Amino acid sequence: MSKIILSINAGSSSVKISVYEATTGQTPNELAETQIDGLTSPPPQLKYTRDSKIVIKDKELSKAIASQKDAFQYMLDQLISDPELTAIKRKDDIAIACHRVVHGGDYGESKVIDSETYHHLEELTDLAPLHNASALEIVKYCLDSLPGTKNIAVFDSQFHQTIPEHIRTYPINQEVAKKNQLRKYGFHGISYSFITRSVAEFLGKDVGETNLIVLHLGSGASACAIRGGGSMDTSMGLTPLAGLPGATRSGSVDPSLVFHYASDVGKLSPNSTSSLHISRAEEILNKESGWKSLTGTTNFGTVAASSEPKMKLAFDILVDRICSYIGSYYVTLHGKVDALVFAGGIGEKSDMLRKRVTAEVACLGFEVDEGKNGKKIEEVVRDIGKEGARHGTLVCQTDEQFEMARICAVDENLLN
To answer: In which residues is Mg(2+) bound (predicted)?
Structure first.
């Protein structure tokens, strides 16, 4: 018997819901997708696709939608009231709501959310205050308003539980580290899971025999070394702040920098709330840095297309940091690399960035074919590598929504 799964992805300024029909062990079938963007820069805009056809495109909403929970509630009502979406006529038709939760601590697998799991995730919010809180707001709404629906947390950190101890451990007092759960966790794991499976299939290899260097490049960006289908190392750490710079994130900097930046960095931000405790340091490095701080825009397409010095500087910084991780992970994998994979919104769309990065790491054996690289990416996996190159270079259109639904569908304990 098929069941309806909602894949729910709450971002800092958006909420996306994908609707799937699934039976145990089968590939989920997408029925609809709806998204509200612009929660932090009103008016919010709605997109809605049903049966792969655009129904609503960038419709400005006059209704007051101030939070992720408001956005979710609006879209849920929209899905239920759509006469063309016959799979959902009432709330009881939704068997499973799977939620993307950025930080899962030591959880190595997805979890059914009961009161114990929920309270554990609340405690983890201090490790990822800018990410877990919006997801938990929607989880709580689902627990209260959809009593017949099973809620499942799929963690961005669970893919990285295979990172070896010597890589995940910070060289600090270990009693303090263990007490406060201070170690490298890594994120974007739902995306890396999808990419690893998709690329292995494309290459005709077993996942367990696949070695990749993957770049998930978007407004939040990270890199991952994958050996034998599992995460060996990743650029993000205790929180998603470490590693590569992003649209508003600094990425890794000297830890002392923030104390020289401002004198009140240890104080709570004025934007803190009773449930969300953000220090000024976290706010500066997460929300007031990255290429927006250098250029004034979060749009990387604008950055890449401009020859203006400040734009070029931002582009060069990102290329430099990406190449540093490629070199490091090439050594981690002892040179046994099936492919360098570009993914994420920027990785999938910016042929200029792909061309520049591969040119900088050509000494390692990665080269792109300019003709293949310049074409719009339409397949799930596209080979953009130059014929005869030592290692492959690919682009993968990642799909976190699908991967969440698939994780639920392949696990009988989660689906039933």
So the answer is: 9, 400
